[in-house]
Amino acid sequence: MSGFNSSPPTAARAASAMADEPLGLTVHSMPSPRQALDGAEGRRTVFGRWKMILVMLCCAAPVIASYFTYYVIRPEGRRVYGELIDPQRTMPELIATSREGAPVRLSALKGQWLLVTVADAGCDALCEQQLYLQRQLRESLGREKDRLDRVWLVSDAAPVPARLDNGLHGATVLRVPAAQLAQWLSPAAGHALAEHFFVIDPMGNWMMRFPARMDTAGAGRAKRDLERLLRASASWDEPGR
Q1: What is the pTM of this model?
Q2: Structure confidence at residue 75 as a pLDDT band (50, 70, 90)
């Protein structure tokens, strides 16, 4: 009939056109399991490093605090008898020898304050005087004495005389060749190692040297230095190793 339009309605034509066109989709790639694992591993590595740094700072904080207290926060007029070693010298990785001939790592001495003297095994009059003062200094510290070890580093290969046995009771005696000791300790200008006492902190750092050929009066002043160091680090190390 001429009254009717034979073409489809507009809406029908649009629907038909859409049905004929292909459907377009945007696909976003998902991260691979390996990428996710690498990211997590990286975060763990960074966290682990920060944790290690924090632990190291916690370990070092007491010694830093003790030095700060001793050398910075101190009453005016206080005079330090020992000479501060700056920069400090870290204990080298050396293998020493005990009196019985057994190998001993020098690092085994770490963990406490050390009062060190050096001499050859023959131990002349100066050496005997040093060993005597070393023993008296430690004993004079009273209840704090267990925080300080007496150490005699023998600088040659000769046997230690039996006459010294009583005086060496409770001391650590290790044989370290003089050439190796020179990597760590040194005397004041014009003096020898055997003329000094050396103070080593529990982390193995050589941090103080007492004047050469110290006498009894000097030993009294050295005692005050040691007492201050031990008091400043009271919360740091513990008696015994």
Answers
A1: 0.69
A2: very low
Tell me if the bond preceding 87 is cis, omega within 30° of 0: yes
Residue with tokens 């007491």: 62
Distance CA 139, CA 238 (A): 17
Structure tokens at 104: 């001993």
Residue recorded with tokens 């103070």: 199
**Residue in 160, 161, 163, 135 with CA at minimum distance from that of residue 149:** 135
The per-residue pLDDT of the chain, averaged, comes to: 81
Residues 6+ apart with CB under 8 A from 186: 193
CA distance 213 to 225: 17
Residue predicted with more confidence, 60 or 221:
221
Which of 63-77, 93-107, 192-206 comes out lowest in average pLDDT? 63-77
Whole-angstrom CA distances from 114 to 35, 146, 151, 212 are 52, 11, 7, 18
Nearest partner of 187 among 131, 133, 119, judged by Cα: 119
Q: Which residues contact 235 (CB under 8 A, 6 or more apart)?
A: 62
Which residue(s) pair with 114 in the sheet?
149, 200
State how far the Cα of 197 lies from the Cα of 134, in Å rounded to an integer: 8
* CA neighbor of 154 nearest in space, from 183, 122, 187: 122
- Which residue do the tokens 């690092």 mark? 107
pLDDT bucket at 204, cuts 50 / 70 / 90: very high
